[in-house]
Amino acid sequence: MTDELGVVVGYDGSPQARQALRWGAAEAAARKSPLTIAHAWQWPHHEWPGELVPLELVRRPAQRLVKAAAAGVAHHHPEMIIDSVTGRDSPSALLADLSGQAALIVLGTRGYGTLHSMAAGSVSGHVAAHARCPVVVLRGDPAGRGARDIVAGFDGSRASMAALDFAAAQAHRLDSTLHVIIAQRGRGGQADTHELRIQTQGQAWDRLTCRQHTHPSLRTEVELIDEPARAALLEAAYKARLLVVGARGLGEVRGMLLGSVSQALVHRAPCPVAVVHAR
Ligand SMILES: Nc1ncnc2c1ncn2[C@@H]1O[C@H](COP(=O)(O)OP(=O)(O)O)[C@@H](O)[C@H]1O
Ligand SMILES: [Mg+2]
């Protein structure tokens, strides 16, 4: 895995995608990394049944769309390395494919959608589940709320360890406080007890102590909340500029790539959500 594409934004020209592009460009600037604008286009055979549509008729507008988007970003960030990729594919497949060379993928909550793409908004869930790098879904209005903290959900799982590392790096870069939440464990697996949560809190502090070496000015809070994880994190999201969770948790449901808590947050949180996979 490499990250030569830097921050990859899934772009379809919709207002949500433009918001994702602004966020992604600011993120690439903060990381001093390249920005890649990705757009998937598809053969519109549903619209013209039986008729031959020259491929160029679809390909060219797609290329114009990303070139125009790149020019817009270059205007604000003249020093940034900006690339664009178009692919004849489903948006989910293209972005999952690019994730192997990306540092981060940024998506709007929903785009224009086409007959080919899945139900509106499900691209984000699919990419969050399949990507090989962290994925940020731009929920809510990231500019409008003035929230400062970065909130991370921690359950002691491998993915939530990776989420904590990602959240610490973001908090350090953005000069935000990192607020770690340890909520009740759901049904299945070990039963939830206060002792278990104290133990998980210890794991969080150990992990944060490691991060403190690389990010000495990092400010952190760890909070135990006696509520189910989904409710606790949704509540905290109202005061967060970014909510960070692992793709999976401690649950044992095999075959699922996205846990139930992370899935719910990707679809309902009032702020941008980052989904991070275990390394
Ligand atoms: N009890 C919890 N407290 C805080 N965060 C949690 C808790 N449970 C889950 N999370 C967060 O949500 C992520 C995904 O977990 P989850 O959706 O529960 O997956 P699974 O179904 O595999 O358990 C975790 O990596 C963690 O970031
Ligand atoms: Mg769980």
TrEMBL record:
Residues of the UspA domain: 7-139, 148-277
Pfam families reported for this sequence: Usp
InterPro entries per UniProt: UspA (IPR006016)
Name of the protein described by the UniProt record: Universal stress protein
UniProt organism field: Nonomuraea harbinensis
